[in-house]
Amino acid sequence: MRRAFLAAALLASACNRSSPDFVLRPVALGPVPPGFPVSARVLHFADFGDDTHQQAVVAEAMASWSRSHPLDLVLSPGDNVYECGPDPLLPGAASCAFGPDQNTVSPGYAPPVDESFEKLFEKPIAGVQRDGKPVPVLLTLGNHDVAAAGSCSAGGEEREISRRRACLEVAHRSPRWSMPGRHWVHDQGPARFIGIDSNLLKHDYGGFSFEDEVAFVAEAARPCGEKLCFVVAHHPSASAGEHRADFTPEYLARVKRVEQAAGPIAGWLSGHEHQLEHLRAPAGYDVLISANGARGRPKERFEALSTPGARLLFASTRWGFGVLEIGGGGNWSYRFVDDSGKSIQCCTAAARGPCRPVTCPP
Is 5 contained in some domain? Predict the structure, then answer.
């Protein structure tokens, strides 16, 4: 009897250590599209910063992909250091301060060594390389990166602890970690990526202002009439996952303010929902959620949408990551790749149009 119990327990454990396989495709796939010359290839994953078996499996799959598909950039929009972000009590951490712009760290500050950056994020992605060198990694802040309530309080006032954690993440630098500010702009070939502090979509925090975020987006998006522009944010602008409950009237109103400031964007690249999703926002752009890096939600069935007028095109509980490819003339494509290296969903956009689900090319 005991042997049977142990065998059952081991079987359950093994099952929990493999990727779930639920896939939802509400839209029929089009034929394999014609290819286009790729100007930039970008790896996209989020909610990655936890030392789990899932993280190790996904990290190896990303490393393998990078060996056969040269990457130009890596985007990690948030929850980079679980559970609470960097340690705000290390010697010297309290001296971290933002400059007058409330975005970049005051010049001259040297952050303390915090081993959580290497252990939870940098070491796991060490295999993601190009020509034997690290691929540049741009990150944005997630809610766990600036957590300051409950067990994450660190014995301090919530406003100060969350602000300090944000500062420490912006201040940290390594070949596999770059966060130029709480928000930033990065041009890669014909595309522009606009990274924002999407914690402000829920409410102001840490002394930071949502109005300042909107003003930044409006300025950063000026070239978006000519360039392909993508917002990079931890929180999605639409979702069919568990966090759809966060989409209060205030949240939706703030998303709309960002959309209005950004103008004609091609997509919103995000995390937060611990699965893979492709949605079409009511404003017409594509929402691509790649957040099944270290913590999954295997029971999610995507039964409702967060946003009136949004449309779900694909969703899956598979562990994996996303790959964005940018071409000329407004052409781009995106594919979700699972932990085995298989492309499980693809879409392609022509001449700045929407990214339409298609049969994945080789």
Answer: no
